[in-house]
Amino acid sequence: MCLHPVRKKSYSALSRLQAFADMVLADGKKRGREIIVGTINDDVVADLQQKGVTLETTDIIINDAVIVKYIKHVKNQKGAAVAPDRYWLVEKTLRNPTHIYEDTEQKYLVYVNTRAYGRGKVLKVIVHPNFTIKDRTFNYLKSIGVVRIENMKELQFRKIK
User: Fold this and answer.
1) What is the pLDDT of residues 40-56, one digit of tens each?
2) Is 21 in contact with 69 (CB distance < 8 Å)?
3) d(CA 12, CA 9)
4) Phi and psi dihedrals of 7, rounded to 5?
5) How close are the terminal C-alpha atoms of the chain, in Å?
6) Do residues 38 and 13 lie in contact, with contact meaning Cβ atoms separated by under 8 Å?
7) Rounded to an integer, what is the distance from CA 47 to the centroid of its chain?
């Protein structure tokens, strides 16, 4: 008879982004590390192509600088930053967003998960398509935040999906 029941793996244990974030948060330093955390949705690729934008790749990349940015960010005090143990929700949002918007002013993609953060708040992930650094072009996960659901009804957001 087993005295220790087998524990179900949580989402955080299955998330590559959560493991990456845990590693970055352990030392708190930008070291140029990056990982692929998702891909641009086919509906978004088609929408962008209709507007004359061709993506170099569909991969979405995050680097350690984004995670380090939120360690002591002002958003933490307002409850607008993702908790360090909930980065797995970001990966989940990229895989299965509730909505995807285009920020018509900045030309970013905004992935939203309305189920992630509870009453009146949504998880918002900003992806900069065709971002170029040192002759490399990729889709850069630029920002992660928790916002009030009303903020997503602003005129600058055009719903794609």
Assistant:
1) 988 899 999 998 999 99
2) no
3) 8
4) -85, 140
5) 51
6) no
7) 20
Q: Token pair for residue 115?
A: 């189920």
User: Phi-psi category of 121—alpha, beta or left, where left has phi over 0 and alpha has psi -120 to 50?
Assistant: beta
Model pLDDT, residue 81? 75
**Which residues are within 8 A (CB) of 152 and not within 5 positions of it... i.e. 6 or more apart?**
99, 101, 110, 112, 122, 124
Looking at residue 148, its pLDDT comes to: 80
Cβ–Cβ < 8 Å for 121, 149 = yes
Give me the residues of the chain with pLDDT under 70, please.
1-14, 73-80, 116-117, 155
Counting Cα atoms < 13 Å in the Cβ hemisphere of 27 gives 9
**DSSP label of 161:** -
Tokens 């493991």 belong to: 19
Q: Are 35 and 41 in contact (CB under 8 A)?
A: no
- Residue 98 to residues 43, 110, 114, 119: CA-CA distances in angstroms? 13, 11, 6, 15
Q: For residue range 2-14, what is the model confidence (pLDDT) as tens digits? A: 443 443 444 444 5
- φ/ψ region of 28 (left if φ > 0, alpha if ψ in -120 to 50, else beta) reads left
Label residue 104 exposed, middle or buried (CB < 10 Å: 0-12, 13-18, 19+): exposed
